[in-house]
């Protein structure tokens, strides 16, 4: 067990949190909606509006009926994630995808250290496990190189034949049981160093701006830190 370090400013020990990501994002949206002077509109942004000198002055959007709306502002914030379609407005760099995370939920799994995140240093790559609710434990398996196909069963066989033998005996049985019932979801693990923003009128945040391996939840941490810096 690796203890959390002390915060140099407060002197308090840092804490780690795990949770259902979807519920967390929903609560963030509720908090934003309830904030004074905030108006929320669910639209699809199709393009950024620019002046002749390249300065961004707003965005063009579509609603569900394909009705177009344009919004103008002195500052446009772009935060459309790892698959950002507006990253090209700021940099020619592209994410370098070196592996994929395959994730699913295991029910009623007893981890060696309850209420702790677990990183299993397996071959050929690490496996992450952490409890996100009373009964649910999230499993994330890092698969290097090309991701085996899920449709023809290759991905499941990889998990059974390559990953499962690397797990401790106390975890392996529940892992194999979950493979029979749970949907396997995948996400590319990319790397993208940040670039200096030279586009006036626009700020890019989070994974749209720069990407690191998600093993320790760094993407969400960096995104929140971006928000704090922007606020200040």
UniProtKB/TrEMBL annotation:
Catalytic activity reported: squalene + reduced [NADPH--hemoprotein reductase] + O2 = (S)-2,3-epoxysqualene + oxidized [NADPH--hemoprotein reductase] + H2O + H(+)
Top-level division of the source organism's lineage:
Eukaryota
Which enzyme class?
oxidoreductase
In what residue span(s) does the Squalene epoxidase domain sit? Answer: 73-231
Instruction: Give EC number(s), comma-separated.
Output: 1.14.14.17
Q: Report a single Gene Ontology molecular function.
A: squalene monooxygenase activity
According to the UniProt entry, where is the signal peptide? none
Name any cofactors this protein relies on.
FAD
Q: Has keyword Membrane?
A: yes
Membrane topology annotation: Multi-pass membrane protein
**A biological-process GO annotation:** ergosterol biosynthetic process
Keyword line:
Endoplasmic reticulum, FAD, Flavoprotein, Membrane, Oxidoreductase
Q: Name one GO cellular component term.
A: endoplasmic reticulum membrane
Protein function:
Catalyzes the stereospecific oxidation of squalene to (S)-2,3-epoxysqualene, and is considered to be a rate-limiting enzyme in steroid biosynthesis.
Q: What is this protein called?
A: Squalene monooxygenase
Q: Gene name?
A: ERG1_1
């Amino acid at each position: 067990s690796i203890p959390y370090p002390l915060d140099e400013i407060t002197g308090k020990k840092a804490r780690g949190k795990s949770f259902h990501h979807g519920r967390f994002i929903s609560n963030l949206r509720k908090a934003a909606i309830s904030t004074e002077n905030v108006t929320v509109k669910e639209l699809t942004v199709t393009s950024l509006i620019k002046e002749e000198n390249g300065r961004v002055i707003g965005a063009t959007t579509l609603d569900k009926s394909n009705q177009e709306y344009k919004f103008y502002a002195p500052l446009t914030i772009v935060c459309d994630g790892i698959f950002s379609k507006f990253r090209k407005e700021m940099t020619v760099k592209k994410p370098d995808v070196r592996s994929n995370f395959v994730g699913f939920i295991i029910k009623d799994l007893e981890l060696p250290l309850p209420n702790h995140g677990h990183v299993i240093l397996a071959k050929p790559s690490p496996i992450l496990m952490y409890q996100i609710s009373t009964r649910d434990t999230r499993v994330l398996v890092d698969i290097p190189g090309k991701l085996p196909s899920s449709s023809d069963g290759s991905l499941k066989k990889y998990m059974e034949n390559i990953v499962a033998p690397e797990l401790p005996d106390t975890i392996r049985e529940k892992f194999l049981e979950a493979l029979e019932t749970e949907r396997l979801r995948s996400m590319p693990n990319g790397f993208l160093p940040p670039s200096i923003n030279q586009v006036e009128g626009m700020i890019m945040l989070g994974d749209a701006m720069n990407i690191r391996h998600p093993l320790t939840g760094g993407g969400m941490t960096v995104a929140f830190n971006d928000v704090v810096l922007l606020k200040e």
